[in-house]
Specification:
By secondary structure, this protein is α/β, with parallel strands linked by helices. The protein has helices at 12-23, 36-46, 62-65, 85-91, 126-151, 188-197, 269-273, 333-348, 369-374, 378-397, 415-421, 450-469, 475-481, 492-508, 512-529, 532-548, 553-562, and strands at 2-7, 27-32, 50-53, 70-74, 96-103, 113-120, 204-208, 211-221, 232-236, 239-244, 247-256, 267-268, 292-293, 311-316, 319-324, 353-358, 362-364, 403-408, 411-413, 425-429, 433-435, 473-474, 486-488. The structure holds coenzyme A. Residues 11-12, 200-201, 266, 328-330, 365-370, 411, 413-415, 435, 438, 441, 444 line the site of coenzyme A.
Length: 598
């Protein structure tokens, strides 16, 4: 079928659905919801069989939904309506939630129901639920809806509040008052829940040093306490620790409330507060935290921890596991340096296999564009950050004494994908989305040894196609292309178990010395053919032009990304219908990434 996505942006959910539908042979074209006329034009140009709206902030114009079937995704249970569905579900302590695929109609979220899917709620950030449970349920509901539509025999069901299973209700937009923290009364758990309900947008508005800030990314602390509720009592790796009535809570990110029309963006809390934190003690943790030998299976990442940390290490049955869970997968200069230090320490451990686990939501999205944007010289900070990423990538590439495994539990983008390719084996959780390209960031050339790592895995033709097409790649296609070695596990837990099984079998294998010898031999011959230093030098020469050259495209693109400047048009690599006919791929295009879009 020809399917048109009408969407506010090509966000992770829209990318995942794009991947799933193209994998099933549908031809998907994308139009950003800029205004009614542009959407109407897209429909005229593409003449879709079906219109899907994975992520919309406005209603679909009547001129479109009256003439075409438009299926909209809503992150709620049947009957639920309104713009703050997940926020209310988290704050209200719902134990089960869902996704509805409904037909666009005159009233928002009130159209006939094509399909629904449910999931158990997890104590997590709203954005984490969205990227995991909501996304999986949305795939289930949408694929069912598409099949039902294709069958021609299914009639979607009108929403009927008289039915006992229709439990949801129309809920208003959640206001800051609804989730305001009362530091004199709210327990640590209540503070964490309120902040989670607003993460990653809009954050919880609160006062610090008599100024308004939005708070993001909160974690319970159970080893440090003291101070008056609300007071900042410690800092750690850019986060602040605030006392509560019954303990303390880490808050890693803040966004200053804009004054007038001057926009602001999210940054590590200590970067935002700067000198205001003078005198607050830094509660640093060592680069490689204490080793936790677990007798049973490893607990889920971070669970059972009594404090917050973004890098930690575990060991079991001859395998080391290095976790790094950076907010939004963004890795600043210091993050890269700390992770590299932890990696170098982990290399000294008497293990034979080292698993690099990233975080639960993201493996990595490369250099930290927000920290670069706020730096006195964004060009200099870009340079420092990319060099720190390169140092880290090189440390993985030159881990001679162990087999390294990159275990991607969450999505990865740009340099973050190439960081993973530096490992000997690359495994991904089924359903994550990879964006192994830099071009969308103002024609950024990229580094992280990608010119060595990508062709080695996929060959020169596919390297060109992947980097130029700038499309998200799903795990089945990534495996077919050779970008990753395998994908398995529908959820994080089963993926972890799968990775542990492979890693432990490798560590115990009598073949391991031979595997390590082969690895050393391959590295030696690659090095003799072209030294790693030369790849880096060539890539960085191009990056220098991006950072310091006459063409400001990268700086403009980064600025727009960080400030979330709305798109004024859909890029041609996504809007097939806007490409000249001869540049459109033959329909349908499965994810083989053959053709190169200009
Ligand atoms: N630096 C800082 N923040 C980043 C980031 C980065 N490299 N990559 C993603 N983020 C942030 C986004 O701003 C967003 O922030 P929010 O919490 O305020 O919403 C959040 O992470 C999620 O990103 P989003 O774009 O909404 O996620 P997505 O899953 O829809 O898209 C990507 C994923 C990777 C395609 C997209 O985030 C992207 O293009 N990132 C930039 C990658 C890049 O160019 N890195 C630099 C070169 S190495």
């Amino acid at each position: 079928m020809k399917i048109l996505f009408l969407t506010h942006s090509f966000n992770s959910l829209a990318q995942r659905l794009f991947v799933e539908l193209t994998e099933r042979g549908h031809q998907v074209s994308i139009e950003f919801d800029v205004n009614d006329r542009v959407s109407e034009e897209a429909v005229e140009l593409f003449r879709p069989d079906l219109i899907l709206a994975p992520f919309l902030k406005r209603a679909i114009p009547e001129s479109i939904w009256k003439r075409h079937v438009c299926i909209v995704l809503h992150p709620g249970i049947p009957g639920d309506r309104g713009p703050s569905a997940l926020d209310w579900a988290i704050l209200g302590g719902e134990t089960e939630w869902g996704v509805i695929a409904l037909q666009a109609a005159a009233e928002m979220d009130a159209g006939d129901v094509w399909a629904t899917a449910r999931f158990p709620m997890r104590a997590a950030r709203k954005s984490s639920l969205y990227r995991n449970e909501v996304t999986e349920a949305a795939v289930t509901a949408l694929l069912t809806a598409v099949e039902r539509f294709a069958s021609g025999a299914f009639r979607p069901e009108p929403l009927d509040y008289g039915k006992p299973e229709v439990r949801g209700r129309l809920q208003p937009l959640m206001t800051q008052q609804d989730r305001a923290v009362d530091w004199s009364a709210d327990t640590t758990a209540a503070v964490v829940r309120k902040i989670r309900s607003a993460d990653g947008f809009p954050g919880v508005l609160d006062m610090l040093f008599d100024e308004p800030y939005f708070l993001f990314n909160a974690f319970e602390e159970r080893t440090l306490w003291g101070g008056a509720p609300g007071q900042i009592i410690a800092t750690r790796h850019g986060a602040i620790l605030r006392a509560t009535v019954d303990g303390a809570v880490w808050i890693t990110h803040l966004k200053k409330k804009p004054v007038g029309s001057e926009p602001t963006f999210k940054l590590p809390a200590a970067t935002v507060l700067g000198e205001k934190l003078a005198g607050v003690p830094e509660s640093a943790l060592p680069a490689l935290p204490a080793v936790h030998p677990h007798p049973g299976p490893l607990p889920p990442a971070g669970e059972g921890e009594k404090t917050w940390r973004d890098i930690w290490y575990e060991e079991k049955n001859g395998v080391g596991y290095l976790h790094f869970d950076f907010y939004n997968g963004a890795m600043g200069t210091e993050d890269c340096a700390r992770l590299r230090a932890a990696l170098l320490e982990a290399r000294q451990r008497p293990t034979r296999v080292l698993v690099l686990r990233g975080g639960a939501d993201f493996w990595s999205n490369g250099i930290h564009l927000n920290l670069i944007e706020v730096a006195a010289s964004p060009a200099d900070e870009s340079w420092r950050n990319i060099n720190a990423m390169d140092d880290l990538t090189e440390a993985i590439l030159t881990t001679d004494e162990k087999i390294t495994i990159a275990a991607l539990q969450g999505n990865a983008g740009a340099g973050g994908v190439f960081l993973a390719l530096a490992a000997d084996r690359v495994f991904a959780r089924q359903g994550i989305v990879l964006n192994p390209h830099y071009k969308s960031m103002g024609n950024l050339y990229g580094s992280e040894y990608w010119t060595y790592l990508l062709p080695k895995r996929v060959g020169d033709d596919q390297t060109r196609a992947i980097t130029q097409n700038r499309l998200p790649i799903g795990t089945p296609a990534a495996k077919r292309l050779g970008l990753i070695d395998d994908c398995f596990g529908h959820d994080i837990e089963s993926f972890r178990r799968g990775v542990e099984g492979i890693a432990e079998a490798l560590a115990a294998s009598p073949d391991l010395p031979r595997l390590l010898a082969d690895k050393a031999q391959r590295r030696r011959s690659d090095e003799a053919e072209k030294p790693l230093a030369r790849y880096r030098e060539e890539e960085l020469a191009r990056m220098k032009l991006n950072f310091y050259g006459f063409d400001p495209s990268y700086h403009v693109a980064r600025h727009n990304f960080v400030y979330k400047v709305c798109h004024s048009r859909t890029p041609l690599h996504l809007a097939l219908h806007r490409r000249p006919k001869w540049k459109r791929p033959a329909a349908p295009r499965k994810q083989e990434i053959k053709e190169v879009a200009s």
